Amino acid sequence: MSSPKLPPGQKVVEHLPVLHFDGIPNIDISKWSLRIFGLVKEEVELSYAEFMSLPRITVNLDVHCVTGWSKLGLTWEGVSTREIKRLVHPSPEARYVMVHSADGYATNLPLADFLAEDALLAVKLNGRPLTPEHGFPVRLVVPELYFWKSAKWVVGIEFMAENKPGFWEARGYHMRGNVWREERHGKQNL
User: Fold this and answer.
1) Architecture of domain 55-173 in CATH?
2) How many other β-carbons are positioned within 10 Å of the β-carbon of residue 30?
3) Can you tell me the distance from the alpha carbon of 182 to that of 174, in angstroms, rounded to the nearest whole number?
4) What are phi and psi of 35, to 5 degrees?
5) How many CB atoms lie within 10 A of CB 162?
6) Where are the domains of the chain?
7) 24 and 39 Cβ atoms separated by less than 8 Å
């Protein structure tokens, strides 16, 4: 039986699976930073303490993997992506972002998806700090898009005028990845 919260082609799982392309990076929190750059008024680099001092939001979001599983009812806490926008003041030409991870992974997003009301740079999942497997210290979480767009181990956010493919997009995944439209593979519907 399908749920109104369940996108087409998805099945509910009990536990949040751990998937990643390669190994889990060993991140030294004393050396971690978040660089925000590209088409912005002024580039910013935040230490972990500076990032953690930013205002936080808590949202309840379901996540949906391109492989067909969905985990419903997760509570995420972190910094709103809209707070990032306020910090750097993207230029009017910025229409996309590329989110960079500590392991070399990157994923692209339309600016509108990145700035969705409940999109955030998460530091907690269900009231507990993120584990390394789930993206410690910071993981992007973007509603409405497949979970590959919610990059783990975030270290950079690049504001761009043109849409460039990230890791999976360069390997045939859809450039946007809307779960309700089943944008799993191919570059259509930019």
Assistant:
1) Alpha-Beta Complex (3.90)
2) 8
3) 9
4) -100, 130
5) 8
6) 55-173
7) no
Number of other CB atoms surrounding residue 157 within 10 Å? 27
For tokens 């783990």, name the residue: 152
Task: Determine the length of the chain.
Answer: 190
Whether the predicted model's global pTM rises above the 0.90 cut: yes
Characterize the bridge pairing of strands 44-47 and 33-38.
antiparallel
Residue type, 106: A
DSSP E strands, the chain: 11-12, 33-38, 44-47, 57-64, 69-80, 96-101, 106-110, 120-125, 128-129, 139-141, 154-160
In sequence order, what are the residues at sequence separation of 6 or more whose Cβ sits closer than 8 angstroms to the Cβ of residue 156? 34, 35, 36, 37, 98, 99, 100
The answer to whether the CB of 34 falls within 8 A of the CB of 139 is no
Tens-binned pLDDT, residue by residue, of the chain (190 aa) = 344 578 999 999 988 777 666 778 999 999 999 999 999 999 999 999 999 999 999 999 999 999 899 999 999 999 999 999 999 999 999 999 999 999 999 999 999 999 999 999 999 999 999 999 999 999 999 989 999 999 999 999 999 999 999 999 999 999 999 999 999 987 554 4
